Amino acid sequence: MEKDKVIVVVRPNNRSTRYFYYWAKKPIAIAKEKGIKVVDLKVERATSKNIEKAMTLNPCMVFFCGYNDTNKLLGFNNEILIDDDSNGLFSNGTAEVLCIRDTKSNKCAYVGRNEPFVFIHSLSTYNPLDDEVAHVFLDPLADMVVDALNGLTVGEAFNKSKKIQEEEIRKYSDSEYSFIVPYIFQNMNSLILLGNEDAKIF
Amino acid sequence: MDMEKEEALKRLEKVPEGFGFFIAPEGLFTVDELKVAIKKSSKEGEEIIKIESHYYDFINGKR
Predict the structure, then answer these.
(1) Cα(first)–Cα(last) distance of chain B, in Å?
(2) Domain ranges of chain B
(3) ipTM computed for the complex
(4) ω before B25 within 30° of 0 (cis)?
(5) Which residues does chain B have within 8 Å of residue A184's beta carbon, measured at their own beta carbons?
(6) With an 8 Å Cβ cutoff, is A116 touching chain B?
(7) What is the β-pairing status of strands A117-122 and A6-11?
(8) Is A123 close to B58, i.e. CB distance below 8 A?
(9) Which comes out higher in pLDDT, residue A137 or A103?
(10) Distance CA A107, CA B14 (A)
(11) Which residues from chain A sit within 8 angstroms of residue B10, using beta carbons?
(12) In a 3-state reduction of DSSP, which class is residue B49?
């Protein structure tokens, strides 16, 4: 187990966060494979009290699997975990979904959104991870976290995610799923990176 | 209604049966606004329902 490498994952599992809950599984598995300690604040553990406790471990990455508003994130029983009064995280009008601390310089980077987020999902799948359409929207986000865990800087992971979304736009423009393209385009443009883009955890 | 919302609702008209959509932040559209958008595209009078805060599923007469 690598010392000083801790990540915190906050993933309430309710109707409004269920897809994000499932999409966190891959980054969590990758982190564990790498010997990184994962504090998985899932379902009823997604409380502000547990977050405060986890933050004392000085994590190199925190990501929130849920997007409730542009000025707050909710946890178990709709407890407000972070709002615009919390440490200035929302000072740029974005709900950050990923925070990475450079383990050498301690400077942080935040990835979030500055516009609404919309994704399309299938009604015929029970398990969200079997939903092929949702994969198109959510894989680039989960893979961005994985890339950061694999040693890319936040900037590199962020740009790679955008590039993948550009490729998806081209791929689906002339397909039966062309109706999803405007949403991918909007989501791609609303994804923003703030802070130290050179931050990395390895 | 501002242009961005109007544009977004036009896009929703093109979402076919069998798909739902997730929207954040909460309250971006009212349920009535969404109902209008969906009914415009429906021959059978599809109905849209608000399941929870962010997920909206198309429900047609066949389900």
Answers:
(1) 32
(2) 3-59
(3) 0.79
(4) yes
(5) none
(6) yes
(7) unpaired
(8) yes
(9) A137
(10) 44
(11) none
(12) strand
Q: Can you give the pLDDT at residue A54?
A: 93
- Cβ-Cβ contacts under 8 Å between A and B: the total is 67
- In chain B, % helix, strand, coil (3-state, to 5) comes to 35, 25, 45
Distance CA B53, CA B56 (A): 9
Residues 6 or more apart whose CB falls under 8 angstroms from that of A31 comprise A7, A38, A149
Cα–Cα distance, A66 to A11 (Å, whole number): 7
Whether B19 has its CB under 8 Å from any CB of chain A: the answer is yes
| pTM score, whole prediction | 0.85
Contact between chains at A68 and B53 (C-beta distance less than 8 A): yes
Q: Tally the residues of chain A.
A: 202
Q: What is the pLDDT of residue A68?
A: 60
Indicate which of A94, A117, A187 best probes the interface with B, i.e. most B CBs within 10 Å of its own CB.
A117
Residue with tokens 């310089």: A105
Judged by a CB distance cut-off of 8 A, whether residue B53 touches chain A is yes
Tokens 């929130």 sit on residue: A64
CA distances from A165 to A42, A149, A175, A185, A188 (A): 28, 20, 15, 8, 6
Q: Which residues of chain B neighbour A121 with C-beta distances below 8 Å?
A: 19-22, 55
What are A10's strand-pairing partners?
A41, A64
Residue A13 CB neighbours (<10 A): 18
Is B14 near chain A, with CB under 8 Å?
Answer: yes
Q: For chain B, where are the alpha helices, taking DSSP H only?
A: 3-13, 31-40
Two structure tokens written together for A153 = 């800087």
